[in-house]
Amino acid sequence: MAMKRAVALRYAPDKNVSPMVVAKGKGHVADTIIRKAKEHGVTLQEDPSLVEVLSKLDLKQEIPPELYQLVAEILSFVYRTDSRAKAEGDGGA
């Protein structure tokens, strides 16, 4: 069984051109990243291929242009999921 990996991205459009790697790790570190994300209500997306690629980037490194499409798909998923969760939290309105 492969060791669990996790990568956390932060996107601050007012500060960065593209999302930045803010945490990454495997095993216990990955578990901690995932636990902290859940504690703070961060939407998670499992994509082992993307994690593999992103884990090769340095911390505080913005993602390179060749990964924009992949990350855009993930961000789109996150925004849709967050929007649905907020609508359900408002009584479905």
UniProtKB/TrEMBL annotation:
GO terms for biological process: protein secretion. Pfam families: Bac_export_2 (PF01312). It comes from the Bacteria. InterPro entries: T3SS_substrate_exporter (IPR006135), T3SS_substrate_exporter_C (IPR029025). GO terms for cellular component: plasma membrane. This is FhlB domain-containing protein. It comes from Paenibacillus ginsengarvi.
